[in-house]
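Design request, tokens follow.
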């Protein structure tokens, strides 16, 4: 049995040294790390960034849009010559350039209302990030307190083993002296085994809670990790008198992210109604267009020679202007100076682009007469979305109020249970002290002593549980109040 005690003490010593050499985190460090690495928080952050991009796009929709285009190709067979706008059956190279743009001048504020709705939605998405972070922080606090409670149970179990071991040594001496029977020593030895089992169970519970906290933080299992252990009686708590549920509820309505997000979503839904109403009104757009083109079928000649080509006898020019014949490249022409060069094909490119350059600006009005009910249905749907957002806010506020009142009731019960448990521990400690004195003078059996000792251990463990339960219930009320989580 002594070997077992030595082994347990050695294990506890090594683990204590390992913990002292590890990185011990406080609650603030755990919460900050979880907020930065938790997947739910990251997903909410991505959605907030998407909403921010949608807001940016809705703002840019208020500005004019401009686009350019160009095309180059070869036409075959019968087509319209871009330089003469007449039909021709020929093969030629063409190139077009164009720039066009426009801006919406009026649509009953549809674009602006859409932009404002996107702004409210983007703000609501940021509150979703804060809510996800708050949920993670609350879960971290829960697991953190469970780790601390399990660690305190280890300390109580170690003290219990120490006390039982002292009793074992004292009883063994009395048995050796013939003052007590062997039965007393066997009973205490059995109790020592029970205490050792309790110690192992407490260590297991501590490790399991630590693993759960590590998993919530997203830490790799191989990373050395421990938590700081502030004295539970030194954990700061708000005054219970300042935690009246109605006052906490009013504060929670103003500071809880979910409530802020619901209010913003209602504003966004209202703006979406105004935007959908714009579908019933005319749309006025201002637009412009710049264009030019080139075709190698349009060439300048003077006399019989055409850029190195000689017309076949009898060929008629397409058109004659100021005694200058204009011909189209077609199969009736033949080479007179060998193969045409690349420069010949693109000769006159800049001049054609300049001569063919055209501009136009205009205004268009679109009046919705019948759109298969799309505008009306979109408007009706936007009003239903507003009603749904208002119902969602009412449901969330009702649940928040119920949660706060439930938390207050639980905190009240936890405080009463803690005060009653303190009296139980005091009474059990007195009973054990008297029993130990009587046992030392031979007026009490070892069974009665162990019974009082076990009663004291149970009372301490229960009181420890009561204390941490009360702290957590108060921290939950502080969370709703907006004080923040701190130990």
């Amino acid at each position: 049995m002594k070997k077992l005690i030595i082994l347990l003490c050695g294990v506890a010593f090594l683990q204590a040294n390992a913990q002292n050499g590890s990185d011990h985190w406080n609650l603030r460090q755990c919460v900050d790390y979880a907020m930065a690495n938790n997947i739910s928080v990251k997903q909410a952050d991505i959605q907030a960034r998407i909403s921010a991009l949608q807001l940016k796009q809705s703002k840019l929709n208020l500005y004019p849009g401009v686009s350019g285009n160009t095309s180059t190709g070869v036409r075959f067979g019968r087509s319209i010559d871009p330089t003469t706008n007449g039909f021709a059956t020929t093969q030629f190279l063409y190139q077009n350039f164009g720039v066009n743009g426009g801006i919406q001048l009026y649509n009953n504020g549809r674009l602006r209302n859409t932009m404002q709705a996107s702004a409210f939605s983007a703000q609501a998405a940021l509150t979703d990030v804060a809510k996800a972070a708050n949920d993670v922080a609350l879960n971290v606090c829960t697991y953190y307190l469970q780790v601390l409670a399990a660690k305190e149970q280890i300390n109580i179990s170690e003290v219990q083993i120490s006390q039982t071991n002292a009793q074992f040594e004292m009883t063994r001496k009395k048995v050796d002296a013939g003052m007590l029977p062997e039965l007393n020593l066997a009973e205490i030895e059995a109790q020592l085994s029970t205490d050792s089992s309790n110690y192992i169970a407490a260590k297991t519970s501590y490790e399991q809670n630590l693993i759960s906290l590590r998993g919530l933080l997203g830490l790799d299992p191989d990373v050395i990790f421990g938590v700081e252990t502030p004295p539970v009686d030194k954990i700061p708590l708000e005054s219970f008198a300042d935690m009246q549920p109605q006052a906490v509820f009013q504060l929670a309505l103003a500071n809880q992210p979910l409530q802020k997000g619901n209010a913003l979503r209602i504003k966004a839904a209202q703006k979406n109604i105004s935007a959908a109403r714009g579908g019933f009104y005319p749309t006025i757009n201002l637009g412009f267009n710049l264009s030019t083109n080139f075709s190698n079928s349009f060439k300048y000649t003077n006399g019989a020679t055409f850029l190195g080509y000689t017309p076949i006898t009898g060929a008629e020019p397409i058109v004659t202007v100021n005694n200058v014949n204009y011909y189209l490249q077609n199969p009736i022409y033949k080479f007179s100076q060998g193969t045409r060069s690349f420069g010949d094909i693109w000769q006159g490119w800049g001049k054609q682009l300049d001569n063919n350059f055209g501009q136009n600006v205009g205004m268009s009005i679109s009046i919705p007469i019948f759109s298969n009910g799309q505008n009306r249905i979109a408007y009706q749907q936007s009003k239903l979305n507003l009603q749904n957002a208002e119902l969602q806010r009412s449901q969330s506020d009702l649940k928040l109020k119920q949660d706060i009142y439930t938390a207050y009731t639980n905190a009240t019960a936890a405080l009463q249970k803690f005060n009653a448990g303190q009296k139980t521990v005091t009474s059990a400690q007195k009973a054990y002290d008297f029993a130990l004195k009587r046992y030392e003078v031979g007026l009490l059996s070892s069974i009665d002593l162990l019974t009082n000792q076990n009663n004291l251990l149970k009372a301490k463990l229960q009181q420890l549980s009561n204390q941490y339960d009360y702290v957590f219930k108060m921290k939950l009320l502080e969370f709703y109040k907006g004080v923040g989580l701190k130990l």
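Comment from the thread starter after seeing the answer: thanks! Confidence is low (pLDDT under 50) at residues 1-22, 300-315, 318-322, 326-340.
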